[in-house]
C-alpha cells in the first residue's frame, strides 16, 4: 500500500510546533512508545509492532485525538495488528501487559466485571478502527527494503569499515524509532529505508567507495525517484523525534 500523503494526516502535527499541535505530537509519542514496549513484552515481532503503530497513526489522521482514549486505540491496534500479521494475541494478555505497564507493582487483573468491560471496549474499538480505516490495514513496511539495502551496502564497503561500525544495528534502531512519529504515513517505504541507512552512515562518518566517480549517488541506485530533499526531510523528522524523546519523561 502506498504511503498516505501529508495532506491526509492533519491529525499528526509537525514536531516542534508550538501550542496544541506540539501537545498532540507528544501524546502520540508516548502512546506509540507504549505500543512498542507492550509489543516486546507480548513477544510481537518487529513487523506486527510496526503495523500496530501505523494503524494507530492512521486512525488519528482521520479522528481528532480528543474523541477517543488513545491508549484504548493503541491496545486495539496491537490486537488488530496481531491478526493482520498472523501473530494472534489474546485480549487477556494485552490487558494484563497494559495493566502492568501503567501499574508496575500490580497483579494480573481478576476476571471480574472490570476485566470484561475492558475486553469488550478493545473489541468494539477494533471494529471502530476498521471502519475508520475502511478495512485498509495491510501496509508495506520499510523493513524488507532495509534488509536488502544493508546486504548490498555490506558488499560495497570494505570489511574493516563494516565490522568496526554498527551501521546495521543503528539503521534498524532508527527505523524502529521512526514509528514514534507519522513518518510511516508521510513517506514511501523505500525512501524511509534508504534515509535511515543514509543517517546511520552519516553518524559514523562512513563513505561509500567510489561515490564521487559514480554516475548517481548510492542512495538513488536503491530508489530512482528518491531525491536529496526527501532524505533531508526524513532525517529532520527523525531528529525531531529524538529531540522530543529528551523532553518527555
From TrEMBL:
Keyword flag Acetylation: yes
Gene3D superfamilies xref list: Cyclin-like (1.10.472.10)
Endpoints of the signal sequence: none
Cyclin-like domain mapped to chain residues: 33-131
Entry annotated with the keyword Acetylation: yes
GO terms, biological process: positive regulation of MAPK cascade; regulation of cell cycle G2/M phase transition; regulation of transcription by RNA polymerase II
InterPro entries, per database record: Cyclin-like_dom (IPR013763), Cyclin-like_sf (IPR036915), Cyclin-Q_first_cyclin_box (IPR048055), Cyclin-Q_second_cyclin_box (IPR048053), Cyclin/Ssn8 (IPR043198), Cyclin_N (IPR006671)
CDD domains cross-referenced by the UniProt entry: CYCLIN_CCNM_CCNQ_rpt1, CYCLIN_CCNM_CCNQ_rpt2
GO MF terms held by the record: cyclin-dependent protein serine/threonine kinase regulator activity; protein kinase activator activity
Alphabetic keyword roster: Acetylation, Cyclin
Gene Ontology cellular-component terms listed: cyclin-dependent protein kinase holoenzyme complex
Protein family according to the UniProt entry: Belongs to the cyclin family. Cyclin-like FAM58 subfamily.
Subunit structure: Associates with CDK10 to promote its kinase activity.
Role noted for this protein: Activating cyclin for the cyclin-associated kinase CDK10.
Protein name from the UniProt record: Cyclin-Q
Organism the protein comes from: Cavia porcellus
Source species taxonomy: Eukaryota, Metazoa, Chordata, Craniata, Vertebrata
Gene name of this polypeptide: CCNQ
